[in-house]
Amino acid sequence: MHINKKIASAIAATLMLGTVLVGCGNGNSGSEKVKHTAALVTDGGSIDDKSFNQSAWEGLEAWGKENKLEKGVNGYNYAQSNSDADFTPNINKLIKAKYSTIFGIGYKLAPAIKKTAKQNPKTNFVIIDDVVSGKNVASVTFKSEQSSFLAGVAAAETTKTNKVGFLGGVKSDVITTFEKGFIQGVHAVNPKITVDVKYAGSFTKADLGQSMATAMYNNGEDVIFHAAGGTGAGAFTAAKNLAKNGKKVWVIGVDQDQKADGAYKGGNVTLASAVKEVGNAAKDIANKAMKDKFPGGKVVTYDLKSKGVDLVNDNMSDSAWKVVQQYEQKIIKGDLTVKAK
Amino acid sequence: MLKGKNKNALIIPLLAVLSGFIVGAVLMLVFGYNPIQNYVNLFAGAFGDVYSVSETLRNMTPLLLTGLGFAVSSKAGFFNIGGPGQYLMGWFSAVVFALHFHALPGIVLIIGSILCGALCGAIWSGIAGVLRAFFGTSEVISTIMLNYIALYYVNYAIKTWLAPKGSDSSPNIPKKASLCTDFLQNLTHGSTFHWGFFLAILCAFAVWFYFNKTCSGFEVRSVGMNPSASRYAGMNVKKTIIVAMIISGILAGMAGALDGIGNYQNISVSNSTPSVGFDGMAVALLAGENPIGMLFSALLFSALQIGGLSISVLSTTPSEIVNVVMASIIFFVGIKYAFEMLIIKGVIKKGAKAKEAGNQ
């Protein structure tokens, strides 16, 4: 009997302490400093997803460090979304914490940004990979078809089987841009090469990516370009498993330089990476916002010319790399236009 | 005065929650974060102002309903892991209903969408119920499989029929079909709170009433305790199994429907089965499958999730720590026998001491 009373009183004490502490918590938002602060909301992945969210976060981190800001309420920060239901609460929490510029990483956040931007006209909003209208919203888009085109050139110059593959995440305008650019690049080099296009229907399933990539490699495709975020991590695992058994296969990474993901004992399966400098873009926009030049209401496009997208050479042969560079110059000069659709 | 058993039913979850928080605090200390500050941020983020409270209550709505759904089947002795699939089917069909019959008046649309969601959830769990009742198929396996069928079917249907070309989500439902009204938005400072919350609360009481005051509810509990004895007593076990599974599906489907027309207003392609279906199981387990207790456990888990978002916003601590706390709570509920042993041991020890004192 007594022990129960003890437990009950312990719980009661904890609860009371909790209430007191909660009471104190309200005073937190009082520390005012005239500093420009920025934060991002992830689209469901984490900030170490080796892809989109990570690049964005690294860019914001770099911006914060350059401007001697600290991670936290008075500097830069992130809010992680565990599901789509978290988008709006996360954005609202960041607004309450008084961040000056809020980034929505990925088109999935567009509806949430649209709604909250209207309710909070004094906060700057940035949407990546989509266009949202509103005076306080800057829309950032990337000409991914250009870097994907170069990935296609690299694949075509490397393949021995004349079969290459494309592994996409969820099929949508943003991802088909990669697919279309890639196909155009492959066919610019050799129209006879077949491109096998597959969609996993998910950005977070490495196991599915692995089984799909294995099937594609077994089908004779020796280069796979993935635009599938976390699902694409499985393509690297599949390629490494085959490479360890002496099969010559390659992956072309996406969003970030994925060279490290292709490393295995005895070699590396990452041919190249079609990077999308989300980080640079985030840094750029944060800098502009800090200097009161926030491009609100505008669509900012990053392309090969402005180094917003690029193809990074990881393990290409010299001859292949030369051809890629030739095409790159053509696109930058405007001699060659890559269609996004 | 509470009866002994009831008192344990209350103390064990409380101890589990407390232990979960302690584990989280220890972990934060080990990694050099301030646990008190983080728990303050957590609770302030969940209950600090009108907006946060409404966000917490909104998040609690599907947790409570999927929890109730799990509890009903569990009382009948079935481990219905199909919550995520039933939730998804409910969400999908509610949105489809609201989009398809957009010409109907608002109130009809809302009621129709919710009923449609509940019906589809019921069909989805009913399949597993029928398989179990007539063929003895393990409901654990069939509901897991049905989750995947629901996920891929819904994704396919969205891409093929609902989403405009190049998009991966359906159009928004008409405003009149939404449970989230301007009145509520203004009242709660622009939160996502919607009327579905009150329906969920109503469901909790309805389930309590069903278990304790109806014949069918009694049969469900009886079959759960001993199917053979129930059959001997003249109950139709097959019918009871199917009824329990269908009620379970209705509740999970309703959770999806309310989220669909209350929170999301549309449906998108999902990467994986919605986790809220599984979180509901945790809600039910913590409350010992008591519908009224689930009001509190759903509130707690919702607060942890919504408040948890604040942790990384306001400090450098990763918000994943909240998942550790939640998992620990479930773990401690799981080993409730350990607590029971401790309590019993404590009583015996004291008894022994008293005896000793008496002897001297």
TrEMBL record, chain A:
- Which Pfam family is an annotated match for this chain, by its short name? Bmp
**What is the annotated localization of this protein?**
Cell membrane
The superkingdom of the source organism is Bacteria
Q: Which UniProt keywords apply?
A: Cell membrane, Lipoprotein, Membrane, Signal
The record gives the membrane topology as:
Lipid-anchor
Which terms in the GO cellular component ontology are assigned? plasma membrane
First-listed, main subcellular location of the protein, grouped into a coarse class: membrane
Residue ranges constituting the ABC transporter substrate-binding protein PnrA-like domain according to the UniProt record: 39-340
Name the family the entry cites. Belongs to the BMP lipoprotein family.
Q: What name goes with this protein?
A: ABC transporter binding protein
Automatic annotation (TrEMBL), chain B:
Membrane topology is:
Multi-pass membrane protein
Might you report a single GO cellular component term?
plasma membrane
A Pfam entry, by short name: BPD_transp_2
Task: From the record, give the transmembrane residue ranges.
Answer: 12-33, 60-78, 107-128, 140-158, 193-211, 241-261, 294-315, 321-339
**How is this protein named in the record?**
ABC transporter membrane protein
Q: Where in the cell is it found?
A: Cell membrane
Organism domain of life: Bacteria
Q: Tell me which InterPro entries the record gives.
A: ABC_transp_permease
MF terms in GO: transmembrane transporter activity
Q: Which organism is it from?
A: Ligilactobacillus ruminis
Write the record's keywords in alphabetical order, separated by commas.
Answer: Cell membrane, Membrane, Transmembrane, Transmembrane helix
